[in-house]
Design goal:
By secondary structure, this protein is of the alpha/beta class. It has three domains: 55 residues, no CATH class; 181 residues, Rossmann fold, CATH 3.40.50.11090; 152 residues, 3-Layer(aba) Sandwich (Rossmann fold), CATH 3.40.50. The protein is built from 16 helices and 15 strands. It has a seven-stranded parallel β-sheet, with helices on both faces. β3, α6 and β4 form a beta-alpha-beta unit. α7 crosses α8. The longest helix is centred in the last third of the chain and has 33 residues. It is globular.
């Protein structure tokens, strides 16, 4: 026992095993004090204690999880939100998203916040922002709304509801929810009635995954019977309704709206006095649908061939996780990351051309952003996405193979060098600059979808009161 006490006294001072060793030492002392008649238990203890210590130490034998633990860890993002009932305090609209950090506010997240704010105004509802991955930043919401020409006229609440360790949130009869992904939708379907929920769908989210568990769960959520689905763009809606893997009943339970770009005007910017032109390449190497490597190859070939001459063009790689690269002829592109909303739009407004590849049916935001500022844009064909001239004649499409992209870059460069045609296309485009106009019909339908249940419950209550 002296040796045991010595080892125990030493190990309790080690930062890694101290707490475990202290517990084992106390257990051994308790067993020893029980006397000789409990000897069998004392003899059995070392093996059990050694096993416990082995599992606690780095490199030790790991504990075997149960199937339930394994599945909970695998599907952590779809774990239900926890709510507790409270009395009605008036209508409240909750938007549930992963994060509203600076890096996630462009495109889809910004659109979700704008839709939620316009809908909350329409319903006279408090807007509650619920984030699951990072604590919410209410000031970021205000900046996004201001940049999009939208004012929230109702109170704003912001709460953090992490999957693990989050507190329960209050919910009442007049609470309604807007989900922003299949995983937030699935989490809410496990917590609230589906007639209180609308799913904002801004891409065919099945395309985020190879064929496997995630894709299957995503497809099941998108096809949830009776779920109201709000689709970003008619092009994506048509794909989801009539494409190769249609969502059953979408034409009955879904609707679409077109995005707006309030930061864009109708006047073409003045050309650079130096004669240099700027090209925007949407560079997201870790978002596979952006065809980053295909775009790099096409740009490199165009530079090597002289279509994008280094004396005329400055190449901007705009995105996330952008590598430092050298193109042919020693061309060093400018890497652009982490812009604020205002800085991003100032950059877009300075572009003469853009190459934006997106191997999905949605038109993607950067082509519309660039075209709305008068730039010539080349993007790729995908399914129903074969012609985007309904938005702007400044958007060109080609198949995403090298010969087609080479031809497309030649067309893009010719259009970029023709400011008169670009300016005429800009004035005639059908890209919305007003969110209230773009969302008007959609918000009316959503408000009716949510309040129908409220009216039904009120009618039932009145009927019961009269019969009493």
């Amino acid at each position: 026992m002296k040796l045991g006490r010595t080892i125990g006294d030493f190990t309790v001072n080690l930062p890694v095993v101290g707490s475990v060793a202290r517990d084992l030492q106390d257990r051994a002392r308790r067993l020893h004090r029980r006397g000789p008649h409990r000897r069998s238990h004392v003899e059995a203890a070392p093996k059990s204690l050694a096993s416990t210590l082995l599992q606690a130490l780095p490199g030790g034998e790991p504990a075997v999880p149960t199937v339930a633990e394994w599945l909970e860890k695998r599907w952590w993002a779809v774990q239900p939100l926890a709510f507790y009932p409270t009395p009605d305090m008036g209508p409240r609209l909750s938007i549930v998203t992963d994060s509203v950090g600076a890096a996630s506010l462009f495109g889809g997240v910004g659109t979700a916040l704008v839709l939620a704010a316009v809908l909350a105004n329409r319903m006279g509802a408090t807007l509650r922002l619920i984030t699951r991955n990072d604590p919410p930043d209410a000031s970021a919401v205000a900046r996004v709304l201001a940049a999009n020409g939208v004012t929230l006229e109702t109170p704003l609440e912001a709460v953090f509801a992490p999957v693990h360790g989050g507190r329960e949130l209050p919910v009442a009869d007049n609470d309604y929810f807007l989900s922003t992904s299949w995983w937030t939708t699935r989490a809410l379907l496990s917590s609230v009635r589906r007639d209180r929920l609308a799913y904002l769908l801004q891409e065919d989210e099945r395309m985020f995954y190879p064929h496997g568990d995630d894709r299957v769960r995503c497809g099941q959520t998108m096809a949830e019977p009776g779920l109201m689905i709000v689709v970003n763009s008619q092009l994506l809606f048509d794909h989801l309704a009539d494409g190769p893997e249609p969502i059953p009943g979408l034409t009955d339970t879904g609707d679409w709206f077109e995005p707006a770009f309030p930061a864009a005007g109708r006047m073409l910017r003045q050309p650079d006095e130096s004669g240099r032109r700027n090209l925007f390449f949407y560079a997201r190497p870790n978002n596979l649908r952006n065809l980053f490597n295909t775009g790099l190859e096409a740009l490199a070939a165009a530079i090597a061939a002289g279509t994008l001459h280094p004396a005329e063009w400055t190449i901007h790689l705009v995105g996330k996780d952008v590598p430092d690269l050298i193109f042919p002829r020693g061309v060093r592109p400018r890497r652009v990351e982490g812009l604020s909303w205002t800085d991003y739009h100032n950059l877009v407004a300075s572009m003469d051309a853009g190459l934006v590849l997106m191997d999905t049916p949605h038109p993607s935001y950067p082509p519309l952003d660039l075209a709305a500022h008068g730039a010539a844009v080349l993007t790729n064909v995908h399914g129903f996405k074969t012609d985007l001239s309904g938005y702007s004649q400044n958007i060109l499409l080609e198949q995403p193979d090298m010969p087609s992209l080479a031809r497309g870059i030649e067309r893009m460069v010719a259009l970029a060098r023709d400011p008169a045609t670009r300016a005429a296309n800009l004035r005639a485009d059908r890209i919305s600059r007003d969110w209230s106009e773009s969302l008007g019909a959609m918000v009316d339908r959503l408000a009716d979808h949510f309040t129908t249940d409220t009216r039904s419950r009120s009618t039932t209550h009145e009927r019961l009161s009269r019969s009493a």
